[in-house]
Design a protein that fits this description.
mainly alpha, 3 helices, isomerase, pyruvate, chorismate mutase, CM_dom_sf
Length: 102
């Protein structure tokens, strides 16, 4: 498989779609790593109530909004995407926490 063109090099929708598909594959690989950290958190946290940490969630969302804005993206839009990612990460961690202690 060849590497997709950078966005500014795309001249056709086929090229755009190839680029999007490549980025999606890269994002899935990063999500595998991120969810691996959720597995580690589930293993490390002694209490189930520690899985949901609203202060940490707020910190993550603030961090990503700031990073997005610094990169020229809409911080609120990226915050909304990350909110869903964090909620799914928490759900995953609860599942793992419960599974490790069943």
């Amino acid at each position: 498989m060849t590497s997709a063109k950078m966005p500014e090099q795309c001249n056709t929708m086929i090229e755009v779609r190839e680029g999007v598909d490549q980025v999606d594959r890269e994002l899935v690989a990063l999500l595998v790593r991120r969810f691996g950290y959720m597995d580690a958190a589930a293993r490390i946290k002694a209490e189930r109530g520690a899985v949901r940490d609203e202060a940490r969630k707020a910190q993550v969302l603030d961090n990503v909004a700031r990073e997005a804005e610094a990169a020229g993206l809409d911080g609120q839009r990226i915050r909304a995407v990350w909110n869903e990612l964090v909620e799914q990460s928490i759900a995953h961690e609860f599942d793992r926490w419960d599974g490790m202690r069943a």
